[in-house]
Amino acid sequence: MDLINMGKAAKQAAFALATASTQQKNLALAIIADELQANSEQILAANSKDIELGREAGLSEALLDRLLLNTERLNAIASDVRNVISLNDPVGSEIDHKVLENGMSLARRRVPLGVVGVIYEARPNVTIDIAALCLKTGNASILRGGKETFYSNMELVNVIQTALAKAKLPAACVQYIEKPDRELVSQLLTLDQYVDMIIPRGGAGLHKMCKENSTIPVIIGGFGISHIFVDQSADLVKSLDVVDNAKTQRPSACNALDSLLVHRQVAEQFLPQLVARLQDRVTFVADSSAQALITGAKQWREAQVGDFDTEWLSYTLGVKVVEDLDQAIEHMRVHNASHSDAIMTNDLNSAERFINSVDSAAVYVNASTRFTDGAQFGLGAEVAVSTQKLHARGPMGLEELTSYKWVGKADYLSRS
Amino acid sequence: MDLINMGKAAKQAAFALATASTQQKNLALAIIADELQANSEQILAANSKDIELGREAGLSEALLDRLLLNTERLNAIASDVRNVISLNDPVGSEIDHKVLENGMSLARRRVPLGVVGVIYEARPNVTIDIAALCLKTGNASILRGGKETFYSNMELVNVIQTALAKAKLPAACVQYIEKPDRELVSQLLTLDQYVDMIIPRGGAGLHKMCKENSTIPVIIGGFGISHIFVDQSADLVKSLDVVDNAKTQRPSACNALDSLLVHRQVAEQFLPQLVARLQDRVTFVADSSAQALITGAKQWREAQVGDFDTEWLSYTLGVKVVEDLDQAIEHMRVHNASHSDAIMTNDLNSAERFINSVDSAAVYVNASTRFTDGAQFGLGAEVAVSTQKLHARGPMGLEELTSYKWVGKADYLSRS
């Protein structure tokens, strides 16, 4: 099927899904979860084939691990789908309601977006994950996974199709672009007549490509340098715990700490303690302001141009001493704070100034940057983490897969 | 100044505006309103120059009227600015607030988008209108008006600059692209490093150009075929009033009625009455289903291919008889219902099915499509009318010029 026909079919399916009951959508989800487990042998066999081909193609062990499915991971995916069943269906709820002076009853009612296009890379779990979240919110989806997971995805799409058929939902509610041609991605990005939103799930290159080529609104996200500023009023002992957590709990995450800024008044006290605590695990990258206090570390080097613009995704930490909060804020503005940033402080005024002046999706007072996450925020599921400002910012849950329509009811009312 | 430097300056100004008090922003607005009236002679003289040049260039009388400023219109613009002062400042309010199980206090706080780029055509009032709405919501703006209003806009920008200086706000809070080169518009559309949102205010061609060339999120809107479906259960006498209002109150508006669909059961009764009422003002375009009931009209013609996809913006009305609600909904799906659509009915079930099945920004039960408007909806101001589904749909007020950030506060909390 060519992409225009996929788009048309998705739009038709979206009309049906938009009015499907929560019960019917949940039934499809329950069958997906069951079928994932009932067909685990086939799915794992297909995945083994992907792994084998990936190994032949020389993929790194890290990447192969992201491709890998096993019984435990498959059970976790099924469990995630069952969790989506338990979440509240946002479709049909009214955001606000008022009665106008002329007697019209006016409300904004939540509706599905329509058709969502998702372009992703290696992880096969995204196929089920996104399909489930889109189904729950009444959106048709067109999926394009990485070629490294082709055989796994074909099996997962079979599971989804079985569930759609059993739940009496149109097959085109979830479609998968099978052919590997890159040209098809470009085509998908210009199907604005049929597709309402593009979600790229992958590296910065994929996001850039989508932003530059799409005529459909794109959710950009996941990138940005994360900072912690340790203010002069901070509890330094407690701050050590938070900085440790932000840097080392999961260094490969996009909300892990990249750059630490320390107020000059407390740097001499704080930094040597930090070095003592982290030096077995962390490499410090210090600019001239911080070097004298870092030189005792087992592993450190001088900061080069660009280091404070680097998302480390590893056990590396940029360190800088600043004169005051203003200088910290200025540093963050220049060095692409947009994702998650925190201040350690006991000063109410510093806290509020930090919150209002740092232009990031999530700002924290005395908490780790690692909290930026749909599950941590109680959203129940995470579609993506947006670092743009339109539509949704930060972790996106089910509601962010919806739009609204204005609903006006009256007694044969004309405008005067 | 080149556009990259304009973008940088706007972003810097946006940081200052984001933390400006409502009082300071309102002061700037009050001065704009006062200066508009104090400088009316100069502004009207510049406008006369634009009108003169426009007449020499052979612009239509309709377009010249849109360009024209006079004392009355200038007073109306000043009055609109004073109205914006009276509106609630959305910045800083919290959308929701919760305390997580781990003790973190978490809220989403409304913040400005940052920098808004606005591209518009003839009307000089847009310059003041958009600058005022952006200032109120703490957004810096980069404006690009039509070359037909160059001299008027230069005077209006002077007024804005005077007000910014007197209110001690950075000059770059509102910038205007003076040079006429079309290339500059393309450059503006790719300044994604500095600009957060593009609002095109103009015809379908401008919207399409922005959608296709912008790497910045664009608010698309204002277009779509508006329908009324007269159900078999409708009060036909009252429906006549509503259809009349929707078609004739202001035919040039984007929410004016384009196509009327009538249930077969009531068509024989309703259409001749409609013809009798509207035939002195309206030309009917009827497809084969409706012709027998329309032929008595003073002005009518057979519908051609494309007529039901035409936004008339004039005293023309498409008419079609349909078998039932399903056929009406199907017609609307095929013929680009996306803006404002209404059903006339006394049947609760038909009303709910219509509301849920018609995928438009605004759907009405027993009310005129003409209500889709920021002022009518009580938003206080209208930035644009969006027909896309991301971020905002339908009339956009001040809130839709904001984003939010997540604000988490805790007692030195690490993620477990």
Automatic annotation (TrEMBL), chains A, B:
<dbReference type="InterPro" id="IPR012134">
    <property type="entry name" value="Glu-5-SA_DH"/>
</dbReference>
<keyword id="KW-0560">Oxidoreductase</keyword>
<comment type="similarity">
    <text>Belongs to the gamma-glutamyl phosphate reductase family.</text>
</comment>
<dbReference type="InterPro" id="IPR016162">
    <property type="entry name" value="Ald_DH_N"/>
</dbReference>
<comment type="pathway">
    <text>Amino-acid biosynthesis; L-proline biosynthesis; L-glutamate 5-semialdehyde from L-glutamate: step 2/2.</text>
</comment>
<keyword id="KW-0521">NADP</keyword>
<dbReference type="InterPro" id="IPR015590">
    <property type="entry name" value="Aldehyde_DH_dom"/>
</dbReference>
<dbReference type="InterPro" id="IPR020593">
    <property type="entry name" value="G-glutamylP_reductase_CS"/>
</dbReference>
<dbReference type="InterPro" id="IPR000965">
    <property type="entry name" value="GPR_dom"/>
</dbReference>
<dbReference type="InterPro" id="IPR016161">
    <property type="entry name" value="Ald_DH/histidinol_DH"/>
</dbReference>
<keyword id="KW-0963">Cytoplasm</keyword>
<dbReference type="Pfam" id="PF00171">
    <property type="entry name" value="Aldedh"/>
</dbReference>
<keyword id="KW-0641">Proline biosynthesis</keyword>
<keyword id="KW-0028">Amino-acid biosynthesis</keyword>
<feature type="domain" description="Aldehyde dehydrogenase">
    <location>
        <begin position="7"/>
        <end position="280"/>
    </location>
</feature>
<protein>
    <recommendedName>
        <fullName>Gamma-glutamyl phosphate reductase</fullName>
        <ecNumber>1.2.1.41</ecNumber>
    </recommendedName>
</protein>
<dbReference type="InterPro" id="IPR016163">
    <property type="entry name" value="Ald_DH_C"/>
</dbReference>
<dbReference type="GO" id="GO:0004350">
    <property type="term" value="F:glutamate-5-semialdehyde dehydrogenase activity"/>
</dbReference>
<comment type="function">
    <text>Catalyzes the NADPH-dependent reduction of L-glutamate 5-phosphate into L-glutamate 5-semialdehyde and phosphate. The product spontaneously undergoes cyclization to form 1-pyrroline-5-carboxylate.</text>
</comment>
